[in-house]
Amino acid sequence: MSPIGDAGDIARLLAARIEALARELFPAGRREGGELKLGSLAGEAGRSLSICLRGAKAGVWSDFAGGLGGDALDLVAQALYRGDKRQALAWARRWLGLSDGAAAEPARPAPAPRAANDKNEERRTAFAWRVFEAAEPRIAKTPVDLYLRRRGIDLSELGRQPRALRFHPALACAEVGREMPAMVAAVTGPDGRFAAVHRTWLAQTPEGWGKADLAAPKKVLGSMGGGCIRLWRGASGVPLAQAADGESVVISEGLETGLSIAIACPERRILAAVSIGNMARLVLPEAVREVTIAADNDAPGSQASTALQCAIDRFAREGRAVKVARSPIGSDFNDAMTGQV
């Protein structure tokens, strides 16, 4: 095999020319700092897909809406050949000038009409709001309260419950085809408006209330890109948009981790990004000058670890001081609260 024949070598060569590659694949993309933003792998304008253009992560990309990501060769495969790496390799070698062979005709996915996308998003957001609005605002003594207490989270220690959390006694679950009790949380967009609802279906077990035994007990309905669950305002007590100049925030991935930190450090402002992929998209006011990321203990080199680094790089490029805090035991700070390993 030649020194530049395998997929890893080709991916590195593509990454070295990622700006030219990204512009060729996605002419409608918009540059934001060291990233190129676009709507999807279909190539339309938007912000759901992010491609790192500079530094050690050059070529690394994430499609937050589609849940995909990878290196520069993966980008070619997904953008042109519906994930077929063999065809992507042939195209990449030709593009790099390493081969004169013919490459298969690209089969780029067609974007949905913009008007249709807008209407669908409006419908999802409206439906998500109806789900949240139908839930009970008070969670004391409900299955949500019992579930959180079992996770070591006693919200009575805070003096009040976060307004983003509610209890839904009978929320439809498509996975099992019936209604189940659920914890729901409001996801607020960058503009401060309701954007999506985060749902955690619950079930009673001999040990007490816990997450339902589902393939996906947690799901988001609506458009959460760039938004977060605003769990706790901290000592200031003011909304995020009114944060004082120089304020700091703590950002967790999951809401249980965020609530655990709020119990331990009620003076801090706590935001839950919902997913590690969405953390890099989180839009913060300029007044927030310091970010502490309460990171899960993911394996080095994992996709989650790469996404975490993208978030760190993003906040640092914005001129914010970035700190990373990790639980000394278990996988996250909720494990530290409950003593689980």
- Proportion of residues in β-strands: 25-35%
Q: Kindly report the CATH topology of the largest domain.
A: Dna Topoisomerase Vi A Subunit, Chain: A, domain 2
Biggest β-sheet: count, sense, barrel? 5 strands, antiparallel
> What's the alpha carbon Rg, rounded to whole Å?
22 Å
* CATH class descriptor name of the largest domain: Alpha Beta
CATH architecture assignment name of the largest domain? 3-Layer(aba) Sandwich
**Silhouette:** globular
Number of domains in the coordinates?
3
Put simply, the count of helices is 10
Q: Going across the biggest sheet, name each strand in turn.
A: 1-2-3-4-5
The rounded distance between the terminal residues' Cα atoms is: 45 Å
| Order of secondary-structure elements | HHEEEEEHHHHEEEEEEEHEHEHEH
Q: What share of the residues lie within helices?
A: 25-40%
Helical/strand content category? alpha+beta
Task: Give a verbal description of the structure.
By secondary structure, the chain is an alpha+beta fold. The chain has three domains: 7-95, Alpha-Beta Complex (DNA Primase, Chain A), CATH 3.90.580; 114-220, no CATH class; 225-341, Dna Topoisomerase Vi A Subunit, Chain: A, domain 2, CATH 3.40.1360. Helix content is 30%, strand content 25%. The chain has ten helices and 15 strands. It has helices at 7-16, 18-25, 72-81, 85-95, 114-134, 143-150, 255-264, 276-279, 303-317, 333-338, and strands at 30-32, 35-38, 49-52, 61-63, 68-70, 165-173, 178-188, 194-205, 208-211, 218-222, 229-232, 247-252, 269-272, 288-295, 321-326. The protein has a five-stranded antiparallel sheet with strand order 1-2-3-4-5, with helices on both faces. Strands 6, 7, 8, 9 and 10 form a five-stranded antiparallel sheet that branches. α3 (72-81) packs across α4 (85-95). The longest helix is centred in the middle third of the chain and has 21 residues, at 114-134. The radius of gyration is 22 Å and the shape is globular. The model has no long low-confidence stretch (mean pLDDT 87).
